[in-house]
């Protein structure tokens, strides 16, 4: 059945009575879009155990608690990811309530065996209708239904502000960061990307999807808090660092990194979510929504690099080409 997030949670609770575990399942960019929702559930829920797991790992090392009071939210942007289909079938077999999201209408993920949300992936599609926001809505609906959630309205208000925030931020990032980022990539064969909180999903995503997959750029992602437990030993002049600074509670972790970078390297850049519009969102929920904005900044940055290197982000040499 085709359902949205609100309808899916209502149906899950009607069928199961209560949800004890929620598992967020995807691969690559699809898993990245679900990670902020997992972060939100861990931070906000006293009754629901939450885990984000890459689809293949979910199938080969299946959580023992997966069962009749579990909810599985899976995402495959294309709708054809075999690992996600396998995970969905496993979840159904174990009696979980299964909710899948995809932009691929009629794909392997869009089938009658489970409930599905199909979104249109277009520049004109409001954020409220896209996958990452729908995942956050799953959290808000489940929290309100099972234990109460005083920031419920703030979540929806924040989501509706994102379209305007992103439009302005796109102009800002092109004016302030894109050219310098591309130039520094030209001068540095390697960079480190740092971030924290829910936005660490996009720190990870910028590395593995936008740069390694789409630009063949060697790089590594580091959690801002973990930076000081080993990786900071590599910091020196000439080493390129890109910091994605949160506007939420984890901002203090990023500020600590920035203070160190300022005195130990001469090559760093900062994308500050607070300065890119997230200060317009209720402070109780902005941390969960800012990864959506940061994603679009990463899109602009990778496009700028692609222009300098004459490497369109759609080009691949292995993915979908070789057998693997």
- In terms of per-residue confidence, which ranges show pLDDT below 50 for 5 or more consecutive residues? none
> What strand line-up does the widest sheet have?
2-1-3-4-5
Beta content: 15-25%
Mean pLDDT: 98
- CATH third-tier fold name of the largest domain: Rossmann fold
CATH architecture call of the largest domain? 3-Layer(aba) Sandwich
The radius of gyration over CA amounts to: 20 Å
Characterize the largest beta sheet: strand count, sense, and whether it forms a barrel: 5 strands, parallel
Distance between the termini: 33 Å
Shape: globular
Tally of structural domains: 2
Fourth-tier CATH superfamily name of the largest domain:
Glucose-6-phosphate isomerase like protein, domain 1
What class do helices, strands and sheet pairing give?
Answer: alpha/beta
**Treating each run of at least 4 consecutive H or I residues as one helix, how many helices?**
10
Bin the helical content. Answer: 40-55%
CATH class of the largest domain: Alpha Beta
Write the layout of secondary structure elements.
Layout: H1 5-16, E1 21-26, H2 29-44, E2 49-54, H3 55-60, E3 70-75, H4 82-93, E4 97-102, E5 115-118, H5 131-146, H6 152-176, H7 178-187, E6 190-195, H8 200-215, E7 218-223, E8 240-245, H9 251-264, E9 268-272, H10 286-309
Parallel strand pairs: 1-2, 1-3, 3-4, 4-5, 6-7, 6-8, 8-9
Explain this structure to me?
The chain is of the alpha/beta class. The chain folds into two domains: 5-149, Glucose-6-phosphate isomerase like protein, domain 1 (Rossmann fold), CATH 3.40.50.10490; 167-309, Glucose-6-phosphate isomerase like protein, domain 1 (Rossmann fold, 3-Layer(aba) Sandwich). The protein is 47% helix and 16% strand. The chain contains ten helices and nine strands. The chain has helices at residues 5-16, 29-44, 55-60, 82-93, 131-146, 152-176, 178-187, 200-215, 251-264, 286-309; strands spanning 21-26, 49-54, 70-75, 97-102, 115-118, 190-195, 218-223, 240-245, 268-272. The strands form two sheets. Strands 2-1-3-4-5 form a five-stranded parallel beta sheet, with helices on both faces. A four-stranded parallel beta sheet has the order 7-6-8-9, sandwiched between helices. The longest helix has 25 residues, at 152-176. It is globular. The two termini are 33 Å apart. The model has no long low-confidence stretch (mean pLDDT 98).
């Amino acid at each position: 059945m085709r359902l949205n997030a609100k309808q899916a949670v209502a149906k899950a609770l009607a069928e199961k009575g209560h949800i004890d575990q929620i598992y967020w399942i995807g691969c690559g960019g699809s898993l990245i879009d679900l990670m902020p929702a997992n972060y939100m559930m861990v931070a906000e829920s006293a009754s629901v155990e939450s885990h984000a797991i890459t689809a293949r790992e979910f199938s080969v090392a299946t959580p023992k608690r997966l069962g009749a009071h579990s909810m599985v939210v899976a995402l495959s942007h294309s709708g054809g990811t075999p690992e996600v289909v396998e995970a969905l079938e496993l979840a159904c077999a174990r009696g979980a309530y299964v909710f899948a999201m995809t932009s691929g209408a009629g794909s392997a993920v869009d089938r009658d065996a489970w409930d599905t949300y199909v979104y249109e992936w277009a520049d004109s599609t409001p954020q409220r209708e896209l996958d990452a926001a729908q995942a956050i809505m799953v959290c808000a609906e489940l929290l309100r239904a099972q234990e109460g959630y005083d920031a419920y309205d703030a979540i929806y208000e924040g989501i509706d502000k994102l379209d305007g925030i992103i439009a302005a931020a796109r102009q800002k990032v092109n004016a302030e960061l894109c050219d310098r980022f591309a130039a520094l990539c030209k001068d540095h064969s390697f960079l480190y990307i740092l971030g924290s909180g829910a936005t660490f999903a996009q720190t990870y995503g910028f590395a593995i999807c936008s740069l390694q997959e789409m630009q063949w750029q060697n790089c590594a992602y580091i959690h801002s808090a973990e930076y000081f437990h080993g990786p900071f030993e590599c910091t020196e002049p000439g080493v390129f660092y890109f910091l994605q600074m949160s506007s939420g509670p984890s901002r203090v972790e990023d500020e600590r990194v920035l203070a160190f970078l300022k005195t130990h390297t001469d090559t760093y850049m900062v994308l500050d979510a607070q300065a890119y519009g997230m200060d317009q969102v209720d402070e109780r929920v902005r941390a969960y929504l800012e990864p959506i904005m940061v994603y679009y900044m990463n899109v602009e940055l990778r496009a700028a690099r692609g222009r300098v290197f004459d490497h369109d982000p759609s080009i691949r040499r292995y993915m979908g080409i070789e057998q693997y």
